Each structure stands twice: as structure tokens, then as C-alpha cells.
Amino acid sequence: KMFLLFLLFCCLLLSYCVSVCVGRNKTYGFTQSLCDFDFDYVVAFEDDFEADTLDLTKWTPTYGWATTLGREALLTPDNLYIEDGDLVMRSRRDLMYNFTSAAVTTMNKASWQYGRVCIVAQLPGTNGTGHGLWPAHWMMPNDNTCHPDRGEIDILEMLNANGVIYSTLHFNYETNICTMENESKFNTSVIADFDEVYHEFAVEWEADHLTFFLDGTPTIRLENNFDQRLNNSAIVPQFPHYLLLNTAIGGGWPGSPNINTSFPVYHRVDSVRVTQRVFEH
């Protein structure tokens, strides 16, 4: 009898470990990361989110109403947490505030000028029920301006859970505000399984060019050139940038959620890694 009880205990323990210790099964859309080991590069920043809580020496959560990070959503602490080796940013409907969501940045804690920035993530929403969702991985200069030598690097943006991935460099010549009305060079890629598979969204940034990557494959290369009329030319930033990760809800570009938009949704980040050439680090 004691032996049978022991076997039952072992079975229950094994079942618990399969569901809790192992966690969610993850499928990746790539076999080699742009930020994998390279003799010419060193790791300048990394987080695999294996700790129980967010590492506040690397990240600063953003709470409250933040126009560009939340749009129509209030950013709240309960929507930002670590689970199964992921940084999770949850978005949901709210009776008081309509929508709540989450965002983190490395502002005032980590920034880089040049290098490779690789973010592995599973994006929120499902095609057909994600109107108004706007997840983004992007970089801004430390002084939050958009002078000609700075600009905004949008590694990933997706609207309305439609699987269309935007990778964009915003820059300008006369003002210090990054908008679509100034200069933008971008590429779009399509991934159908964004809500099931972890994909790598990355950028390689050097003094003379900026190249966006999806799952290790380059999607567009922008050459540094002060003549914006040339194809695939831009003003490549020459100033340290920090990283922002968020899911905005609504706003002018995707529009507000509608009755078909399903909540809650989860923006899961598996890892963030930044590597730089040895002489840049």
C-alpha cells in the first residue's frame, strides 16, 4: 500500500513538473540568430527573462497614460510580468479605463550607438480579431529628439494583428520631431504565424548603413546618404539610442478596437540581445 501511495505521489509530482517546471512549449521561426556568437562582436546587453521578476537594473516599466506607448490604453503594473521565461505584456479591456496595456524601456539604463539588436517575440492578437492592436519594438535617441544625426529606429510594428511587419527608419532635415510627414524609409514583411511562433526581429546598425532582419534574413538595407531622394538612402543615426517594447491600443494608424477585437492578448518577449563590434563596445 505504501508503495502504491509512493507511485501515486511520483506521478503527481511528474505531472506538476511537466505543467509548471517545463512551462509552455515554444516554437521558433529561425535556426540562427543575427546576434549569435561572432568573433568580431561582443555582447553589450542581454536578457533571457529567466528570473522570477523583471530585472530593474536593465528595464524601466512605464505606467500611466503615455501617448506613444499606450495610445488609448492605460499602462498598468499588473499587465507586465515574467512567465515561462518570457517578458509578458498583456493588453485587455477595462471597465474604468476602456483598455490597459504594458510597456518597458531601457531609457537611462542602457543605450547603444551601432551594433546588432535582436528581439525574439511572439506577437499579440489573432488575424481577424485584433483590430486596434499596435505592438512595437523600437529605438529612440537618448535625448528623445529627431535631429538629422539621430532619428527613430522602428525594428517592428504590426497593426491590427494582420501579420504585416513594418521595419522603419524615421529621420528629417529641418525639425526635431519624428513623424511620417518627415522622411521615412521602410519595408514590410508578412508572417502568418506571429501569434503561435517566436520570430526574431532585428536590426544591424553601423555608421554607414542600417539593415533590418526578420528571422536572420535581411529585409531592407539603408545606406547613409544626405540626399533623401536616392532610393534606399537615409540619414543613418549617429547617436546613442535606447530600446522600447510595448503594445499600444488604438491611435490614428490602426484605429480603435472594435466589437470584434478579442481581449486579453499577450505580447511575449523570449529574449533581447545587443551585440557590438569589439571596437564599438
* pLDDT < 50 stretches: 11-22
What would you call the structural class? mainly beta
Give helix and strand order, one letter per element, not per position. HEEHEEEEEEEEEEEEEEEE
Number of strands: 18
Helix content: under 10%
Q: Gyration radius, to the nearest Å?
A: 20 Å
- Count of runs of 4 or more consecutive helical residues: 2
Largest sheet: number of strands, sense, barrel closure: 11 strands, mixed
Q: What does the average pLDDT come to?
A: 89
Shape: globular
Distance between the termini: 64 Å
Strand content: 35-45%
Outline:
The protein has two helices and 18 strands. With 281 residues, it is mainly beta.
Please characterize this protein's 3D structure.
With 281 residues, the chain is mainly beta. Helix content is 9%, strand content 42%. The strands form 2 sheets. Strands 1, 3, 4, 5, 6, 8, 13, 14, 15, 16 and 18 form an 11-stranded mixed beta sheet that branches. The chain has a 7-stranded antiparallel beta sheet with strand order 2-7-17-9-10-11-12. Strand 14 and strand 15 (217-224) form a beta hairpin. The longest helix has 20 residues, at 2-21. The radius of gyration is 20 Å and the shape is globular. Residues 11-22 have low confidence and may be disordered.
Topology:
Layout: H1 2-21, E1 41-47, E2 60-61, H2 67-70, E3 74-75, E4 80-83, E5 86-94, E6 98-101, E7 103-105, E8 115-122, E9 133-141, E10 152-158, E11 164-171, E12 183-190, E13 199-206, E14 209-214, E15 217-224, E16 233-234, E17 241-249, E18 265-277
Parallel strand pairs: 3-6, 15-16
Antiparallel strand pairs: 1-18, 2-7, 4-5, 5-6, 5-18, 7-17, 8-13, 8-18, 9-10, 9-17, 10-11, 11-12, 13-14, 14-15
